[in-house]
């Protein structure tokens, strides 16, 4: 009975709701209601969205750490910027250094070339000066030699005249005249000796083909073979150079001339050795 009673009460209620749905609502009333209800419905939505936009609060330690990290990042960025600047400056300096090194190498090469050229010029000048001095000395020697060679026949004639006059019987005045001529001859030989001219009179000496000119041979067993027997014409040397050979006759038929004694050679060698030792000691 209770179930049937409940169904009966629900039936009138359903009919009432159906009748309410069939009721027509004016448009203006609906718009006014929507306008009136909009602020109320929008505010809760805005209030619901605010919690999602809230920034979480940071502790003091977190703020300090964040500041430190920000400072480190700024310092690192600044260091990178300065490092890049220094790198670019270093590259530029290296480039400039390479250019300066090239310029220096070129300057060093020019300096070395100039020094070598100066040394060559100095060596050439020294050689030229020595060669010129030697040529002047040689020219003077040649001129003196030419003059001496021209005077030698005159000296020969004076010597022959003196020998011929002394071979004759002379009175006192003629003897004094011959002595005067002989004095002039002696002075001429002194002048030639001052210029380095020495006579070669090898009578009784061993024949030397470098200084003597053999014009005849004489057999003489009493003398060593190849000994100068007679001197027809004296020779002369000038500065260790023979300017005229002596005209002589050479003997043959005698004994062979003995070789020089070795003692003399040894004495000469020992003297030269002592001289070298003394020179070495003086240098030390």
Concise account of the structure shown:
This protein has five helices and six strands; from the N terminus they run ααααββββββα.
Could you tell me the radius of gyration in angstroms?
70 Å
Shape: rod-shaped
Q: Report the sheet with the most strands, covering strand number, pairing sense and barrel closure.
A: 3 strands, antiparallel
Instruction: Note the beta-strand portion.
Output: 5-15%
What's the number of helices?
5
The total strand number stands at: 6
In the CATH scheme, the class of the domain at 200-257 would be: Mainly Beta
Q: What is the CA-CA span between the terminal residues?
A: 160 Å
Arithmetic mean of pLDDT: 76
CATH topology of the domain at 200-257: Nucleotide Exchange Factor Grpe, Chain A, domain 2
